[in-house]
Amino acid sequence: MNGSKKNSNKFLNWIASNKNTTFLVVLFLILLNLVCTNAYFRIDLTKTKSYSLSESSKTLVSTLEQPLAVKVFFTDNLPSPYNTTEQYLKDILLEYKNNSNDKFSYTFFDMSDSENKSMAAEYNLRQVQVQQVTDTEVGVKQAYMGLVLVYADRIETVDGLTESSGMEYKLTSAMSKMISSTSSLAGLSGSVKMTLYITPELSDFNIANFDKVDSAVVDAIASVNAQNNNRITFNRVVPSEDEISELVDKYGLPGVNWNNKDGTTGTGTIGLVLEYKDAFRIVPVTLVRSLFGYAVSGLDDLSTSISDSLDSLVSKQVDVAYLTGNGELSLADKQNGAANLRSISKDWYNFIGVDLETDSIPTGVKTLIINGPSQELSDVELYKIDQFVMKGGNLLVMADPFIEVQNQQYAAYGMPPTYEPNPSNISKLLSTYGVDISSSYIMDEECYTQTDNQYGKLNYYFVPLVKQQTINQDSVITANIPYIVLFNTASVTPNFTDEDANGRMAQVLLSSSDNAWNLSKNIVLSPMAIQPPAKTSLKKESLSVLLNGKFTSAFDSIPEGYTEGEVSESKENSVHSSSTVLNANTRLSSGVQKSTIIVCGSSKITTSSVIDENGTSATATFLRNAIDYLNGNADLCSMRTKGIASSTFTIENPVGASLSKLFNQYGLPLLIVIFGFIMWRLRIARRKKIQLRYYPEGMSERLGEKPLKIKIEKTQKATKKSKKDKNDSTEEDTNE
Most buried among 29, 212, 364, 465, by the most CB within 10 A? Predict the structure, then answer.
């Protein structure tokens, strides 16, 4: 009994002493870990909220009508930076699940298992070569970095997840497209028709891959049908010569002609068409010419092409009007046109060409893109654009100050092109709305550079490099974009300040550096032909501007020739008048709804010179963000730019840069050591102060916890002496 009481007192004394601090801290951390395992909680301290879902993603997974499963095929133990990508993927999928309505699930598969590798191959996921460096060798490792989304009878693959930037955008876009396509497929009244038009006689011309066309198409359709509940019916057609001309006119299939041995002319074609009712898509299976003759292209990844065409055919994409008929960049031209602009936007938007000389802007369209007009627009065309804006329509304008004229005769001798003022009068509208476009090119010392073996460093002053310091970080369109490359751009300047009485607001999105100047005469765009002017002539220029508000019309009256709103008199709407036509004055003199207008001073940024078809460049991100913003999808902008921002070094002086580098490498660790030393000395001083106050004995000779030990020893001796005296007294009483 006394022993257990003694042990209990020892335990209580140990708990009350300072010896158990480490044990209690470790115990607290273990218990906290157990609690956090079951109670998920995280604080996202990143500037771009990289580890938090946007509202669009939360809404998407919280309103799922059917289960959505994510199968992740990601190889473990990859070297940096791919290992962090895997962890980010796990974190972001956990965010999706925590914000879902219990119909979202995900599974990570062990890629060391051969069965899982076979499953990944069946989903057409491809292995990526990853360089792996060890202590003894440098090698290459084959790794899977992709996932599969399964929703209803739809399957979507997201492959090549090699970096964390833009991952949420890729996942949410794929999920949204699946859900939209599933709803569209479920509502189809019939099957989607796939027709292969092929002329067998073409096999006589030794066309590469021609013998593989039939089997490749059949296999690809079977693969796509397996993912879409067999919604596609297939038919192979050998067209007659009369039918071939009709197919060329209707679908734009290539017509192939040849001369037979008997002197007659043969005609053939090859093409793959996907149709539903009156709409159709051309799957890119066509003849191409190479150094070794003709070949059939498009068979390598045919199932993906068919799947993309199906999505485009049945999904509910947003229509965007694209102005044509005035020398604008063509959406079909991949080399010098805006084909890549359409390519980076096709997952959400369907571009509709609109010639305002004969057509009107379709009802329901929110945005009109005006990209590089090089001819004068008629007053009727300008008026249609103006009234579109007055009704709340949005504009994305890329206008050039000059048009490039290349004399073919001089070009043969290596002569540069000449630059003539652009006759386009789109500035008539823009100036009224509140923005002016200069009649000059902007040159900037902060530009794209290249090193030449003969001439050394070449400065392309006509290709400004807009860095993060001059990119508006307060706008969702440009926030977190590290840099943007422009090309042959004019300055774009608001002609009013702040917010005016009409509620208009101007926001500069992109600016040059402080060392920019205008070039308007004797233009030769060659790095060796341009020299910067005196420093006093250099200044910052605005290169892209956003306007928002209700604008005033640029027209005082309806222009002559405009007939919209003219109604013929009939029994239903007759009036007592000598006129046989009623003129309905539908002109709006000012905006009835707020509109947004984004203006850039160059159409070159939409060409393959600046952006690729996959939209991987920062300039492509800017353009896509602008289109999203104008169509009410601002959430996609922040989603797309998560993780791509970088903290750039702003010190340009070499000495200052070196000192900053040394301070970051050695100064910060030294400051931490000094801080720790100071805290250690302050703790010792505090301990001494406490000991001097409560245990003053022997402090002149003893430090630390020795005074406490002295007092304990004295107390123990006094207790022993007291017990001894008591025992002696007891013995004396016994003897008596």
Answer: 465
- Angle in degrees, 0-180, between the axes of helices 55-62 and 167-186, rounded to the nearest 10: 40
Torsion angle (degrees, nearest 10) of CA 327, 328, 332, 337: 100
What are the tokens at 75? Answer: 């190889």
In angstroms, the Cα distances linking 104 to 216, 226, 581, 647 are 35, 22, 61, 35
- Compute the radius of gyration of the chain from its Cα atoms: 37
User: Is cis: bond before 81, omega within 30 of 0?
Assistant: yes
Contact 265, 179 (CB under 8 A): no
Q: Residue 387 burial by CB count (10 A; 0-12/13-18/19+): exposed, middle or buried? A: buried
The answer for 203, left when phi > 0, alpha when psi is -120 to 50, beta otherwise, is alpha
Show the tokens assigned to 625. 């963000």
Q: What residue ranges in 134-252 does DSSP mark as E strands? A: 138-151, 154-158, 192-198, 232-237
The secondary structure of 701-729, three-state, reads CCCCCHHHHHHHHHHHHHHHHHHHHHHHH
Average pLDDT for 531-540: 92
* Amino acid in position 311: D
In 3D space, the residue among 127, 118, 173, 119 whose CA is nearest the CA of residue 146 turns out to be 127
Q: How far apart are CA 167 and CA 86, in angstroms?
A: 11
Token pair in block for residue 201: 């006689």
DSSP H stretches of helix in 608-653: 618-630, 634-640
- Half-sphere CA count of 543, side-chain side, radius 13 A: 34
Residue 116 scores a pLDDT above 80: yes
Percentages of the chain per state (helix, strand, coil), in multiples of 5:
35, 25, 40
Residue 574 pLDDT class (50, 70, 90 cuts): very low
Contact partners, residue 623, CB within 8 Å, separation at least 6: 341, 344, 605, 606, 611
- 131-135-136 Cα angle (round to 5): 85
Please check the confidence at residue 435 and state whether its pLDDT lies above 60: yes
Q: Do residues 619 and 611 make contact, with C-beta atoms less than 8 angstroms apart?
A: yes
Q: What is the 3-state secondary structure (H, E, C) of 223-283?
A: HHHHHCCCCEEEEEECCCHHHHHHHHHHHCCCEEEEECCCCCEEEEEEEEEEEECCEEEEE
CA distance 306 to 298: 10
Tokens of 421: 């003022």
What pTM did the predictor assign? 0.69
The answer to whether the beta carbons of residues 588 and 387 sit under 8 Å apart is: yes
Which residue is associated with the tokens 């905006």? Answer: 591
pLDDT at 566 over 50: no
Q: Measured between alpha carbons, how far is 547 from 600 in angstroms, rounded to an integer?
A: 12
Q: Cα-flanking dihedrals φ and ψ of residue 385, to 5°?
A: -65, -45
Indicate the DSSP class of residue 576.
S
* Mean local confidence (pLDDT), 287-316: 80
Q: What ranges in 578-653 are assigned the alpha helix state H?
A: 618-630, 634-640
Distances (CA, A) of 170 to 92, 147, 160, 306, 642: 12, 11, 11, 20, 11
Q: Answer for the pair 389, 547: CB distance below 8 angstroms, yes or no.
A: no
Judged against a pLDDT cut of 60, whether residue 3 lies above it is answered with: no
Task: State how far the Cα of 589 lies from the Cα of 558, in Å rounded to an integer.
Answer: 10
Question: Considering the chain, what is the average pLDDT of its residues?
Answer: 82
Of 185, 186, 150, 156, the residue nearest 67 (C-alpha): 150
Instruction: Decide if pLDDT at 718 tops 70.
Output: no
Which tokens go with 527?
A: 């790095």
Judge contact between 232 and 224, C-beta under 8 A. yes
Is the torsion defined by CA of 423, 428, 433, 438 positive or negative? positive
Closest CA to 327 of 286, 359, 374, 361: 374
